[in-house]
Design brief:
4 strands; 99 residues; 16% strand; alpha+beta
Length: 99
C-alpha cells in the first residue's frame, strides 16, 4: 500500500482484493475490518492450503531436517518447496535437480 506514515488506512476499496500482507499490515495498525478479514481467511480458506505433512524434510541444511513436511512439486515433477506447516523454504538444489 502506498500511503504516508501515520495516514489513515483507506479500506475497503470497492472491487479491490487485498493481499494477505496488506491485511496483516492493517490489522497490525489495529484495524478491526482487517482483523475480521484475516479471521475469515483463517476459518474458511486456510483449510484449502493445509498440507499432508506425510513427507520428511530432505534439506540437510534445514534445522528441522527429517521433520514432517509437505513437499510441493511443479507440474513436471520438480520439487519446488518444502512446507513445514507454519513456514516453508525452497527445495535444496540437489533435490530439485534430482527429481
Amino acid at each position: 500500500m502506498n500511503r504516508l506514515p501515520g495516514a489513515p488506512a483507506r479500506h475497503p476499496e470497492s472491487g479491490r482484493k487485498y493481499e494477505r500482507a496488506e491485511l496483516e499490515e492493517l490489522a497490525a495498525q489495529g484495524d478491526p475490518w482487517a482483523h475480521a478479514k484475516l479471521d475469515d481467511w483463517d476459518l474458511y480458506d486456510a483449510a484449502d492450503y493445509v498440507g499432508s505433512l506425510r513427507d520428511r524434510c530432505p534439506d540437510a541444511s534445514c534445522e528441522l531436517y527429517g521433520e514432517r513436511v509437505t513437499l510441493c512439486y511443479a507440474d513436471d515433477g520438480t520439487l519446488l518447496e518444502v512446507d513445514h506447516g507454519g513456514w516453508s523454504h525452497y527445495a535444496p538444489q540437489e533435490e530439485a535437480k534430482a527429481s
